[in-house]
UniProtKB/TrEMBL annotation:
Keywords: Monooxygenase, Oxidoreductase. Pfam families: ABM. The keyword RNA-binding does not apply. This is Antibiotic biosynthesis monooxygenase. It comes from Chryseobacterium contaminans.
């Protein structure tokens, strides 16, 4: 069963260019992973510094493997110092 994920990030406005660069590498590398069906970065149109990752994984196992990838671990380490708050993550399965 496919796993849908929405991850919400809020970055300090002084670091937006750096945040986008970090996201670009993360998205590029993640899209190469087995089981990644969608991995898109969206910037909130009304809230500067707010981004969403829209993810679709072939399975929970594929997403679990993603969590151990170096590019994700590096992103988490580098992004944590310029974020305004922690990441909000919503995971679920399509019901209709």
């Amino acid at each position: 069963m496919n796993l849908h994920i929405i991850a919400l990030f809020k970055f300090n406005e002084n670091y937006l260019m750096e945040a986008v660069e970090l996201f670009q590498n993360l998205v590029k590398e993640t899209r190469k992973e087995e089981g990644c069906l969608q991995y898109d970065l969206i910037e909130d149109k009304d809230n500067k510094g707010t981004f969403f990752l829209i993810e679709l994984w072939e399975s929970v196992d594929h997403h679990n493997r993603h969590n151990g990838q170096d590019h994700l671990l590096d992103f988490r380490k580098d992004a944590s110092r310029i974020m305004e708050s922690g990441v909000e993550v919503y995971k679920g399965f399509k019901i209709y």
